[in-house]
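Lecture notes, unit on protein representations.

Consider one protein chain, 147 amino acids long.
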Amino acid sequence: MADTAPPAREPRPGFALTPSRGKFTIHNGPSYRATAPGDIRTGIWVLDRHCNGMGFLHGGMVSAFADSALAWAVFSATQKMSVTIKLTLEFMEIVREGEWLEAHPEVTSIDGDFIHVHARIVKEDGGLAALAHAVFRSVRRGPSNRA
């Protein structure tokens, strides 16, 4: 399987296709990152495969999207790979297929290897779809591990 998937739709202005990080990302994407320096927003078009049986964005997809966007914010702040230690979400509004969704993350503190971050998950009409809060731990790549 190739490590890239063609974009379903063109990204919003100021966003570019996010490079793939493997099969999970390919299946759940495509996602897009803001291109302006210092802008760490991530966006996604909600596709049919992202939706639940009721026709709106599945909570698990919101979680996967938030986790990825928060990890990008952590990497942007630390320049280190990290793993999710804790992720909590509060679901606020329904998101329908075809809508553009953005994560607006902010790193709130760095305590050694632990990074605290949160994000507002915002719909294209400005509505708040979810709030995400997470703790990540930075990891060091070494000869004996891949993480």
